[in-house]
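ok so i was messing around last nite and threw this chain in just to see what happens. nothing serious, just curious
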Amino acid sequence: MAKKEMEVVRNLDVERYMGRWYEIASFPSFFQPKNGVNTRATYKLNSDGTVHVLNETWSNGKRDSIEGTAYKADPKSDEAKLKVKFYLPPFLPIIPVTGNYWVLYIDNDYQYVLVGEPTRKYLWILCRRTHLDEEIYNMLVERAKEEGYDVSKLHKTPQSDPPPEGDAPQDKGIWWIRSLFGK
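result:
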């Protein structure tokens, strides 16, 4: 049976969406360190309407980060379907890797969000704070399940309070290479 078309947020207020989001849970993916903690994303609006993306995670006490650009998949659509482009490896911008970033649910105050993509291989629950109420978390998980996700794959991301400062030693980009080869 074909899965139904995923419902996506309409008329996302991109300016309100900017700023920092903490990863509460996600499907583990090959491009993040297996033992990553304090994972977060920071979005800034560029003057051309695209979004600067900074993804950070800490593993073995070192800060890893990757930067990219997000833009609307279809500028004429009111659906929150974005494309995010990263260059791989980050210090040698040769191969652009483009992924889908679909906002499936966001609360009215823009405090927590469910993000997925059409293949249902990736899923993220993000929040403005390092912790999300269990009740809200369960509601978002339920929502993901309704959209056809296998929520048993969700992995909670350890977050420390207060979150680490942004200027820890960098392990710039090496984790991408390592994680690609499963090291």
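not much to say yet. The domain at 14-178 is CATH 2.40.128.20 (Lipocalin).
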